[in-house]
Amino acid sequence: MQIRWERRAERALEHQEVSRIGDRALGNTRLKPDALSLTPHHGGPALASSLVPPCPFRLSANALPTLLVVWAAAAACIACTWQSVQVPLADVGATAALVVLLLAGSCYYHARREGAFVLCLTTLAQIVAFAACYIVLMYGLATLAWPLADDQLAAFDDWCGLTAPVVRHWADAHPAIATLLNAAYDTLLIQTAVVVAVLGLSNDRPRLTGFLLAFMLAALLALGLFVVLPAEGPFARFGFAASHDQATFLEHFQTLRDGSRRGVSLRTTEGLITFPSFHVTWAILLAWSFRGRWYLFLPGVVLNSLIVVSTMTSGWHYFADVLGGAAVAAAAIGMTCLAKPGRHSSPCGAG
User: Fold this and answer.
1) Which residues lie closer than 8 Å to 9 by C-beta, 6 or more apart?
2) Residue 167: beta bridge partners?
């Protein structure tokens, strides 16, 4: 009897040793008992999904913003060469110097192991680099001069029963509200700085990376729509009194289309995209980035709702532009949530 128990003990020890060796060989990736369940409670054939290896060509969400910066830079160079658009070297040098300075600061704080400052400065460097390349690309593509879509956009507004002249007339009848809306319209850059500071200094990499990725994807989606559906905007079509920024936009837009402008100064550029409204897209992404922080989310929703309304009261956009901007934001958020999470969790984040 004693010999029998000793043999059983030896076999148990051998089994444990083989199991440990197998764990080391497989990287300690043993299946949990729950993974074998095929019941609806566990979401379907979990065993099959657990055995499928991850796609080797799916990039981490943390790497995608840098890849999009590189892509935007290459596309801007191609557009400038193709359409003979020139950018002053002084502007390129100033932008490059700012990016290098931000990255140098990031390296300094990395050596000091202060991850929050590294995250803030790296994100700012990516935003500056992407914005500069994007502006050049936008100006280059504007020279393609596809037929204007103002008539179609205005007709859609008529069909919806919400036209730019009606909204503008209401804004003129309520000057105090119009002033408030115009002030809100110009807060996007300030809000973006707040997003970077709050999420970066709290070391919330998933949320900040998610915002950055969604912003870049939305900008590129909007640019593609702008190429095929360029428009001057309601203020030009209906003869509203133009602000200084609107007059500058119209002059740049028209001279790029007729070929008389082939230079792009990063110091004096204007946003050229009417459809879809990127102000609406940007506002939605800002509110989305504050989710889970009620002290910022609630004021952010109110402020960015004012921005959405102001896109029409200011005469910049048609109602179709507003809907298009919201659709682009939704698409960008959806694509961001589908991105492979980095080692710091999902870019969508829970809550």
Assistant:
1) none
2) none
pLDDT in tens, 202-241: 999 989 999 999 999 999 999 999 999 999 999 999 999 8
Three-state secondary-structure class, residue 345 = strand
pTM: 0.80
Distance CA 341, CA 336 (A): 10
| Phi-psi label, residue 257: left if phi above 0, alpha if psi -120 to 50, beta otherwise | alpha
Q: Is a pLDDT exceeding 60 seen at residue 2?
A: no
- Of 89, 73, 212, whose CA–CA distance to 133 is shortest? 73
The radius of gyration computed from the CA coordinates of the chain, to the nearest angstrom, equals 26
Q: Which of 41, 37, 25, 103 is nearest to 69 (CA)?
A: 103
> Two tokens at 223?
């640019």
Residue type at 75?
A
Concatenated DSSP letters for 33-52?
GGGG--SGGGTS-HHHHHHS
Largest CA distance in the chain: 104
Sign of CA dihedral 188, 189, 194, 199: positive
Residue 125 carries which side chain, given as an amino acid letter? A
Q: Bridge-partner residues for 86, per DSSP?
A: 263
Closest Cα partner for 193 from 220, 218, 211, 213? 211
Contact 224, 273 (CB under 8 A): no
Q: What 3-state class would DSSP assign to 30?
A: coil
